[in-house]
Amino acid sequence: MTTNQPATLGVLLAGGLARRMGGGDKPMRTIGGRTILDRVIERLKPQCDDMILNANGDPARFATFGLPVVADTVEGFVGPLGGVLTALEWTATNKPGIEWVLSTATDCPFLPRDLVERLQAARIAENAQLAVASSGGQTHPVIGLWNVSLRDELRHALVVEDMRKIDRWTARYRLATVEWPDTPIDPFFNANTVDDIAAAEELAKGDT
Fold it and tell me: Is 205 exposed, middle or buried (0-12, 13-18, 19+ CB in 10 A)?
């Protein structure tokens, strides 16, 4: 973690249903002999002041990772925004000294090691309220930086307005977008399918 950046809590969003892999927990798939979740934690832990895992169902299946497992506070599998809201509310209650939450998918085994640092720097430089990652000209709205003070507005959008798409929500705020190169490895490569896992196995051989 960079000591001169604002305190940031990382939330690993593992609430997806993994339909394209036939169900189950995508982050528990292995690449190069390690689970994707282990790879995500290894990359983000040095960048965050604390971390939690957002997942529904039996939390015991994640016990070996040593992170608090927090279920969605809005029922019905409302998507990644539900996980972000859960993290904002959890942080306000349990870590009141932290104002920023970094959300990320748990199917991205090659996340950049400067993710939090660059998102925070861009947010500050642009006087933005939120920041999201981008690579290869494609925005990755699930991988973003959120202010805890927006939790009530987000809850209203989810529960009252039935909003589900992250980019609809972020369009309401000053948003900084930070671009990463997508070669030789796209740091936001996500393992959504069995074929993606096979591709990730090859990419992992050159990953550092």
Answer: exposed
Write the DSSP symbol of residue 7.
Answer: P
Q: Are 158 and 74 in contact (CB under 8 A)?
A: yes
Structure tokens at 169: 């929500």
pLDDT in tens, 140-170: 999 999 999 999 999 999 999 999 999 999 9
Residues counted in the chain: 208
Q: Who's near 122: CB < 8 A, 6+ residues apart? A: 128, 131, 176, 177, 178
For residue range 52-87, what is the model confidence (pLDDT) as tens digits? Answer: 999 998 899 999 999 999 999 998 888 999 999 999
- Residues pairing with 146 in the sheet: 101
125 by DSSP, 3-state: which? helix
Query: What tokens does 89 get?
Result: 């509310």
